[in-house]
Design a protein that fits this description.
The complex is a heterodimer of chains A (176) and B (417).
Chain A lengths: L8 E8 L6 H4 L11 H5 L10 H4 L5 E4 L11 H8 L4 E4 L4 H9 L4 E3 L10 E5 L4 E4 L5 E3 L5 H8 L3 H8 L9
Chain B lengths: L4 H10 L8 E5 L2 E5 L3 H11 L10 E4 L9 H17 L2 E3 L6 H8 L6 E4 L13 E4 L2 H10 L1 E5 L3 E7 L8 H12 L8 E5 L8 H9 L8 E3 L4 H9 L19 E6 L6 E3 L7 E3 L10 E4 L1 H4 L2 H11 L9 E4 L4 H9 L2 H7 L2 E3 L20 E4 L15 E4 L2 H10 L10
Parallel strand pairs in B: 2-3, 2-5, 3-4, 5-6, 8-9, 8-11, 9-10, 14-15, 14-17, 15-16, 17-18
Antiparallel strand pairs in B: 1-7, 12-13
Classes of the chains: A alpha/beta (176), B alpha/beta (417).
The structure holds iron/sulfur cluster (SF4).
Chain lengths: 176, 417
């Protein structure tokens, strides 16, 4: 199965966070009453991890973090508020399983790479089809691990719901 | 090829030969949502615009996280979920019935099932030999619509247990110790499978505590074989016909083997703000706490209230320490009343909260103040978890929690028992 990735090349600036950013830090449980009002909820994105995030994020920016990003609860609101804040891709050293699946289901690419080589504010260019990141600030180039064919098919449809609307089923993975 | 428990269940439910690393599409035996992730699931489900739920008898809505609701927006979310249950014909458990994972264990989970829930602690049902895993709202919406889901077959870590737990040491201490050894992301994408001679002495309620926290090591599922203990539990729940034995093949391939002698374990405490930051209770001794919280899907079962009541019998909580107790379900609450545990706990100064999640996620009922510390029997101590990023959460067993409530500081339960 050949699947193309959406918007093959993404350009933006890195907003860098640390390790172990839990879903409680991404969107705290105390805002659960706003979960049916996503624009209001999104104003609190990452507030406990980095209170300056919301004021400095610009559309198209990349969220860059370390190990075990998105650990904790299954709340899909975590990638939803990150996306609504304007983030176009997430680059991490490693990610928790449910968060990874939720982000792809929301159509947000998550790339796994050595994010220690990226600093806050770096200009990056991501080639989704090749899974590479060019650091235009430092001049370095990073290779990211590839997602499975089924996940990249879901991503290329813009998320799980559009994928199911189109295919009416999970199309089992075939060897490429 | 010889198979692990995860491979066996996924082979059966996908009607294919499932081995670690494969991606399979499997039939789902139970799909459920709770009230903080359910409204988004309903919206995603309605976008798919299918002919309703594939198998309404296998779908459940639980109102447990904000129960009773502390805010009008959450009350409206409850109304949305009630309407969804009415229109689709799925089951609904109301405010006060209990925490989803406890109710799944009491009424639904069977050995060999595939269970998906829009809650990360869905892994709890692994205690009954079900391949149970947490997913987000979109994935559960798809499972409701299609009656199936896709899964990557996980590699498995085998946890071989021997010996018996010493006095004052519980299943909670075992899993806190194990998460400390593996690390908070050490088992990401993996299955944990429990085995060994010790299982004969580990009851299903204890297994539920262990399986519940598998996700705190990053695991996709925490699986126990289905054996005599499973049969005993299902029979007590009036579900003996749901029993079937289920074991891994003898020469299955495991990615890692971890052996643990339970006799060597001690009471454990996880320090703020990560679950794997766990030490023997002696390191935490004397830390002042303003709140003790006994309950949650990890440790709100009858056995947990029994041990708490035994320790608090004839004693009082320290005047500076609030003691919150939340039975995990209506069944647990009524049995605890019948057995006299509730009276003992109230006389010791406890506040009994209605069955549900209560203080666990910081939404209502027991939000901490700035600089306050809480000793909780829950599964997570992340910063901000109990409603305040300026508070500290320590995790421990119900015995350690009860002993600590008496002294107002973290206490080794063996000093009081
Ligand atoms: S008790 Fe806590 S951990 Fe368990 S389902 Fe409720 S909020 Fe989640």
């Amino acid at each position: 199965m050949i699947t193309k990735m959406p918007d093959m090349i993404l350009k933006g600036n890195a907003i860098k966070l640390g390790d172990n950013i839990s879903t409680d830090l991404i969107i705290p449980g105390r805002y659960a009453h706003l979960r049916s009002n996503l624009p209001q909820l999104a104003k609190h994105a990452l507030e406990d991890a980095d209170p300056t995030f919301i004021s400095r994020v610009k559309p198209g920016d990349f969220l860059v973090a370390g190990k075990n990003f998105g650990l904790g609860s299954s709340r899909e609101h975590a990638p939803v508020v990150i996306k609504m804040a304007g983030i176009s891709a997430i680059l991490v050293e490693s990610t928790a399983r449910i968060f990874f699946r939720n982000a792809i289901n929301q159509g947000v690419p998550v790339l796994l790479c050595d994010t220690a080589k990226i600093s806050d504010g770096d200009k990056l260019e991501i080639d989704l089809a090749r899974s590479t990141v060019a650091n235009l600030t430092s001049g370095g180039r990073l290779t990211c691990s590839k997602v499975s064919p089924l996940m990249s098919a879901i991503l290329s449809e813009g998320g799980l719901i559009p994928y199911i609307q189109k295919h009416k089923d999970f199309v089992p993975e075939r060897a490429t | 090829m010889a198979k692990t428990l995860a491979e066996k269940i996924l082979t059966d439910k996908s009607k294919s030969d499932a081995s670690a690393g494969d991606v399979v599409v499997a039939n789902v035996d139970l799909a459920f949502v709770q009230d903080t992730t359910g409204p988004l699931t309903v919206r995603q489900f309605e976008k798919i615009n299918f002919q309703g739920i594939a198998k309404p008898q296998n779908a459940v809505v639980f109102l447990d996280h904000a129960a009773p609701s502390p805010a009008r927006q959450l009350s409206n979310d409850h109304a949305l979920l009630r309407r969804f249950a009415r229109e689709t014909g799925c089951h609904i458990y109301e405010v006060g019935d209990g925490v989803c994972h406890q109710l799944v264990a009491e009424y639904f989970a069977k050995p060999g099932d595939i269970i998906v829930g829009s809650d990360s602690h869905t892994v709890t049902a692994g205690a009954l030999g079900a391949f149970a895993t947490g997913m987000g709202s979109s994935d559960v919406a798809a499972a409701l619509a299609l009656g199936k889901t896709w899964l990557r077959v996980p590699e498995t870590f085998l946890i071989n247990l021997k010996g018996t737990l010493p006095e004052g040491v519980y299943a909670k201490d075992l899993i806190l110790y194990l998460i400390n050894q593996i690390g908070a992301d050490g088992a990401t994408y993996k299955a944990l499978e429990f085995a060994g001679e010790a299982l004969a002495h580990i009851t299903v309620p204890e297994r539920l505590t262990v399986a519940n926290m598998a996700v705190e090591a990053g695991a996709k599922v925490g699986l126990f074989p289905s054996d005599e203990e499973t049969q005993k539990f299902l029979t007590t729940q009036g579900r003996s016909d749901n029993y079937k034995p289920l074991y891994p093949d003898a020469d299955a391939h495991y990615e890692q083997l971890i052996s643990l002698n339970l006799l060597e374990l001690e009471p454990m405490v996880s320090f703020p703000h990560t679950v794997d930051n766990a030490y023997s209770v002696s390191k935490a001794k004397g830390i002042k706490i303003q709140q003790v919280f006994i309950g949650t899907c990890t440790n709100g079962r009858l056995e947990d209230l029994a041990v708490s009541a035994r320790i608090l019998q004839g004693k009082r909580r320290s005047p500076g320490t609030r003691l919150l107790v939340t039975p995990a379900s209506r069944q647990v609450l009524t049995q605890a009343i019948d057995n006299g545990y509730i009276k003992t706990l109230i006389e010791a100064g406890a506040i009994i909260l209605p069955p549900g999640c209560a203080a666990c996620l910081g939404l209502h009922q027991g939000v901490l103040g700035d600089g306050e510390a809480c000793l909780s029997t829950a599964n997570r101590n992340f910063k901000g978890r109990m409603g305040n990023p300026k508070a500290m959460i320590y995790l421990a067993s119900p015995a350690t929690a009860a002993a600590s409530a008496i002294r107002g500081e973290i206490t080794d339960p063996r000093e009081i028992m």
